[in-house]
């Protein structure tokens, strides 16, 4: 996978002070751009409304995996203020997602002895047959008349 730094590093290695300054400037500019994009990505992750706790926790893991190598590059090629701004944005997003995920319902595994229509399962699980579509979409079922005997549902 190529990064912004590959273009900056592609400049010919030389002893020319002008070219060395140009190379440092290109690396710093790429790191500043990456810091800005990382901060915006953190805001985007925090702005999404997640359907359940598992989705929010997966978003936290994804953001952390994205941020770790990016923050290392940012720290290497910029100053502490730029690194701190990007790092704080990521940290605030992770804290927000962690707090809000506690309010979301967990996903549970439901098993039945035989296949039922989604409306019957929605009535038995939630007391509301209107939530049948939620069960169908959550489990990727093509026909709501024959639901699997083992399926995922939100804890009510």
Structural overview:
66% of the residues lie in helices and 6% in strands. By secondary structure, it is mainly alpha-helical. It has a two-stranded antiparallel ribbon with strand order 1-2. The longest helix has 31 residues. The protein is elongated and about 75 Å long. The two termini are 43 Å apart. The model has no long low-confidence stretch (mean pLDDT 88).
Short descriptors:
6 helices; mainly alpha
Total helical elements: 6
Quaternary status of these chains?
A: single chain
The major sheet is characterized as: 2 strands, antiparallel
**Helix coverage percent of residues?**
55-70%
Task: Report how far the terminal alpha carbons are from each other.
Answer: 43 Å
Structural class: mainly alpha
Topology:
Elements: H1 4-9, H2 17-47, H3 53-77, H4 80-103, E1 107-111, H5 118-126, H6 132-139, E2 150-154
Antiparallel strand pairs: 1-2
Helix pairs in contact: 2-3, 2-4, 3-4, 5-6
Compact overview of the structure:
With 156 residues, this protein is mainly α. It has helices spanning 4-9, 17-47, 53-77, 80-103, 118-126, 132-139; strands spanning 107-111, 150-154.
């Amino acid at each position: 996978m190529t990064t912004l730094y590959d273009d900056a590093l592609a400049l010919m290695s030389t002893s020319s002070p002008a070219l060395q300054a140009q190379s440092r400037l290109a690396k710093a500019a790429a790191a500043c751009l990456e810091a800005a994009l990382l901060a915006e990505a953190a805001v985007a992750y925090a702005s999404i409304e997640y359907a359940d706790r598992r989705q929010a926790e997966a978003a936290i893991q994804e953001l952390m995996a994205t941020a770790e190598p990016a923050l290392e590059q940012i720290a290497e090629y910029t100053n502490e203020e730029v690194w701190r701004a990007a790092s704080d944005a990521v940290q605030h997003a992770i804290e927000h997602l962690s707090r809000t995920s506690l309010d979301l319902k967990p996903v549970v595994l439901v098993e039945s002895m035989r296949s039922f229509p989604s409306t019957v399962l929605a009535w038995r699980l939630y007391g509301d047959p209107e939530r049948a579509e939620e069960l169908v979409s959550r489990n990727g079922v093509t026909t709501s008349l024959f639901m699997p005997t083992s399926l995922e549902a939100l804890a009510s």
